[in-house]
Amino acid sequence: MSLAIAYSRAEEGIQAPLVTVEVHLTGGVVGLSIVGLPEAEVRESRDRVRAALINSQLEFPQRRVTVNLAPADLPKEGGRFDLAIACGLLAASEQLPKLMVERHELIGELALSGELRGVRGVLPAVLRALEAGRTPIVPRVNAAEAGLVARGQALSAGSLLEVCAYLRGVAVLAPCPAPGAGEEVAMAMDLADVRGQNAARRALEVAAAGGHNLLLVGPPGSGKTMLASRLPGILPPLGDGEALEAAAVASVSGGGLDVSRWRLRPFRAPHHTASSVALAGGGSHPRPGEVSLAHHGVLFLDELTEWNRTVLETLREPLESGRIVISRAARQAEFPARFQLVTAMNPCPCGYAGDPSGRCHCSPDQILRYRGRVSGPLLDRIDIQIEVPRQGAGALRGDGPPGESSAAVRRRVLASRALQLARAGKVNSQLAPSEVLRDCALCARDSALLERAIEKLGLSARAYHRILRLARSIADLEGAEAIVTAHLSEAISYRRLDRAMERAA
């Protein structure tokens, strides 16, 4: 029977669903047709495959060829199916053993010369192939990426001829190299570079300890961006599962995956002119946005009040759920988006409200309108709101005492995280309301203090629980078993913008 089956993987978020490539040869007018909801790039595979076979000195069957990409209701795009189609065609014409083709998953785009070109989304495809018990074969340019998960179980090739020789049993393919064990890229930015700003440094440490969102408010040049860029350096290292999830998102994005930095937490800082599609993801073929590219890392939004309000509102759902679903007319894709949000803004339109220089002449109404560009629901989801005042020249002198290093702060953060994982199996910022009541109990006096603060500031129930989670993180940093008044008072003090708005009103 002139029927052969090959396997490949499609792109759908980071799921990489299986695509069965069925190739059937029959009599009739010589030609090649592809069915199974292919996009234009897939339909063009017939020309690439024909040229690749001829230029590789392989026989193109002089028969009618039908290629079915199943399931038929799954959209297929890109040239990633070229290798599977070519090998399926060769197997159907008995130029390759069918059983060998069926034991592998073939991913790669063919050049007209028969060389293999790299494709997007190799990492999730290799992971799913190994779970299915088949050996993936990928282009050589994708070998390092595949090696992150394959651990030598995936194979790489540079051309169609190399793949054919391997499937015939007359040659071997090089396994994808596994990453070096225990290798860590040194952090380029150290918290020791930050001079002064003790309150902001403390807020950064608390945010890192509990995974809390952070808002930095201060005049231009006060060090807001500098502080934000140091946050990844004090966060715990990524676990294997977290690193692979973040790498899978980068793999399916247009930017690709930097294999040398796959163990580092992502730090994304999009410009304030970015669109909602750039931030949340989208497109006719859904691609991950900045919120997904920052998965298990930090998303930094500078000049928060300059962002389009509609764009900022797209953050609300992923901040709560840790995922984002992109729906289009015929496509839907889900991407993970468990990130830590750090934002920065000026205190007023001119940027110098509260500065000792007295250069600010903005009216209270102007300041309120300026801060009103950020919606209340979004501010509600930011646990820590801290002022970053301008530092005097004396604090910036090179002969002054250096700040505490990222390594020292990271040790305290790691100890705090260990307590949280032992107690609840998750960081404090992810505690459910029932878990908050269990782990963040207050004495009667502290409960009354929190109630007065909530009533005076007009905070929501969400803010109530976030203050309790924050107090729990402060207590964990000190190794305290119970939350005391000092911990709660510090947590309340971090609602800086709420207090400022209340005073202005």
Structural overview:
With 505 residues, the protein is α/β, with parallel strands linked by helices. Helices cover 39% and strands 16% of the residues. The chain has 22 helices and 19 strands. The strands form six sheets. Strands 12-15-18-11-19 form a five-stranded parallel β-sheet. It has a four-stranded mixed β-sheet with strand order 1-2-4-3. Strands 5-8-9-10 form a four-stranded mixed β-sheet, sandwiched between helices. A hairpin with an 8-residue loop joins strand 1 and strand 2. Helix 5 runs parallel beside helix 6, helix 8 packs across helix 20 (461-477) and helix 20 (461-477) crosses helix 21. The longest helix has 19 residues, at 406-424. It is elongated, with a radius of gyration of 28 Å. The relative contact order is 0.09.
